[in-house]
């Protein structure tokens, strides 16, 4: 009689199998608790809303003469894609400036984009004179005590896409499509019954805990790519030990030349390999944790998971 592999046997049960109450914490409960610990508290969420709403009101009052905390702007990044985690990170706000501002800066010599960022910074400084700010690259950073709000000045194009500033190499405008970027996460999350956002949040925690040199935007696109072909996508958190392990197995096989495609503009971004040793270490720990889960040694499994996610994930 042929012998089934352990993975084949367990796949009939789900993940590394549900542990009995006497054996300790279950896989599903463990990962549900991790995700609960990653969610912003109500106070953190309200504080973030206050911060980004104030910034939007300031810019709308100056450039449009209206006191609105939502007009001519949209949340991008994690807050726009509902992938924010605790502890709080930056909040990204794209603000669409009037076309006459573009026309005004086009008549200026030198790095127009740098000058534009400095103007937006000075407008915000009038409302927040005691708050540290900087303007460089593509954003104006407003460093509040609890949150930093990254303001991305932009011009909306007739195509629905946007031009944003790039102050590097003398200055230029870069085309982005935040609506399509947000939709890519939302659509993948729908197809996977919520696994996409959960995987992104968990990998952001790994990124932070293990100092992984991968940008959050790249992690989002990698998670979408991985889940497109993962055979257990759409299953419950009982499978999240395998989802974590298999994501690391998939990631560590990628070369420095592997690229992700930016939704909407199809820009290809090579992921490099500075993260590779971190992924290899995480993969080894996840494989060991899954073995411990399957052998009903939940505390030992928890110790391995904490090497990846820290104390946000429980041992028992």
Map the helices and strands:
Elements: H1 6-11, H2 27-38, H3 42-64, E1 73-76, H4 77-81, E2 91-96, H5 99-106, H6 112-127, E3 132-136, E4 139-143, E5 148-156, E6 162-166, E7 172-176, H7 178-191, H8 195-209, H9 216-229, H10 240-252, E8 259-261, E9 268-270, H11 276-294, H12 298-309
Parallel strand pairs: 2-5
Antiparallel strand pairs: 1-2, 3-4, 4-5, 5-6, 6-7, 8-9
Rg, rounded, reads: 22 Å
Q: Report the end-to-end length measured between terminal Cα atoms.
A: 38 Å
Taken in chain order, the helices and strands follow as: HHHEHEHHEEEEEHHHHEEHH
Quaternary status: single chain
The secondary-structure class comes to alpha+beta
Largest sheet: 7 strands, mixed
Tally of domains:
2
Count of runs of 4 or more consecutive helical residues: 12
Q: Strand-residue fraction?
A: 5-15%
The general outline is: elongated
Low-confidence stretches: 1-7, 9-13, 17-22
Helix content: 40-55%
Number of strands: 9
Mean model confidence by pLDDT: 93
